Amino acid sequence: MNPLAGNPTLMRKQSARPMSRGQMQIGATGKAASTTVDLVDRPMSGHGMSGTRAVSGTRQVRDATFFATELRARIQSVNKETDALTNSTNELKKREVTVTRLDDSVKELRQRVTALQGELFDITHAQSRSKEGASLEDLRTDAQKAEDEATKLRNEANIAFKAREEALQRLEKNEIAAQKIRSDTEHRILNDLGEEAARQFRELSTENNTLAEKEQQLRKQLQEQSQVTAQAYANAFVLQNQQNQQNITKAIELHRQIRACKREIDQLRSELQKDQSEDPEFSIKQQLKNQIKTESNECKRLMDEIKNMEAAIANRKRILTEITPDVMTAVTKEQKEMIKNVLKAEKQLGEWPRQKQDLSANTQRLQQQTMALLQRLPAPMARTEGGEQNVEQQLSIKTRELERLSDQEQKVLTELRDCSGNVQQLNETLSALQQAVGDAEAVDDIAGTEAQLKKDLAKQVDQHKQLSAQLAEANQKLNKLEEDIQNNENVKTLRDLFGNLSSTLSKMYSAETYIKTRENESDFQKDKQQAVGLMDGINKQLNGLDKQ
């Protein structure tokens, strides 16, 4: 008996019906169908499952197409990275050229800064020495001493360099000699003492060479550390130079500002001279000054002539002393001419005091004319340090404001006078009305006249009140305008400017007058003393000649 006969489910037979296309497209379910299959180790080829990559939901097969796409993406990313590295390399090469050029520029600037620091030190040293009262010769002496010291240091440095080179050459020669002596000693030891002593000698030589190499390495490290230290000092020096460069830049900027201010001052002086040259009274004053200078030059010319005459007289005296022994024997024609010239010179010297007195009188007269013209000069115009043109504009503006305030004041005064006239007219009318009232007392219709007069009186009283109010208002305006004028900053500024300018010009004129007076007095006394001394000397010598 079949043991499976009692279980009909186990007796089912497999159906051989074919599946339709629609049945095949139905999604499979179950644990086996949901299992992910990765064919990572599957060999890549153009055969087999080239289209099963996205079939069956999460089932994925990585075939040749997938890996080809992945390789293309990786190749593109590698190409992009290569291009980026190439661009970065080119940029670094450009920067390397720029850095090299900048290093050269930094070296040149460092040399220039060093030279400028030397010049700045020289300038500051010269300024400090000049403040201490040193003269130009002292500064030149200091510069010569510094140059001598620098030359001495250069010579010492050259001597030290030559000594170092010679020491290095001697050291090389000594090393060669020591090597030769060492080899000779080794051969001698080998021949005399045997192989064992030679081996020990070679070991000691090797150890000595090792120690020498270590010494060279330590010296090299020491030199490297010295270079690092020198570089650190150089960097610190560069930082200090940058700070000094900032100070130098500030000094240059201040120097430029000073030069600009000097140019502005020169321009203002030229404008001032131009304005003064356009003034007719200034031109008259300048003409008088020129005339005084001409007279002074004439006096100097006369003094030069007197000096020349003194020299000629001295020469003549010398000649007279030479010819005195022969005077009693014979007097030649040339000697007579010489005596005539001496007498002529004496005559001119006798006329010189009168000429000097005339010149002094003319000079005093010109000074008096100058004083009179200066007294006739108008009130000076205000000038400030901001420039003549700005001062003139400010002065014109303030003058117009002052004129406007003056016009307002005149208008208020006119209104006040009109109000006073109206008040006076009303008073006259009131007196006339009172007189009319007195005349109308004897009239029968005195009541009507009185009423009419009362109306007129009330009307006149109202007019009087209105005029009084207008007068009070005008007085208030006048007081306000006066206060505004007194408190106006422009008016105060103008008054201060006028006062400062007047005091400055008076001081300048007093100084010029004092200087001119002192010059004239000193020159006159000096010329007078010279002339008197000259005349006394000539008279004494002529008297001596007459006695002989």
UniProtKB/TrEMBL annotation:
Segments of this protein annotated with the region Disordered: 1-21
UniProt keywords, alphabetically: Coiled coil
BP term (GO), one: intraciliary transport involved in cilium assembly
InterPro entries on file: IFT74
GO CC terms in record: cilium; intraciliary transport particle B
Keyword Cell inner membrane: no
Keyword Transport in record: no
Origin: domain of life: Eukaryota
Coiled-coil stretches noted in the UniProt entry, renumbered to this chain: 68-319, 388-491
GO MF annotation list: beta-tubulin binding
Protein name: Intraflagellar transport protein 72/74
Organism: Hexamita inflata
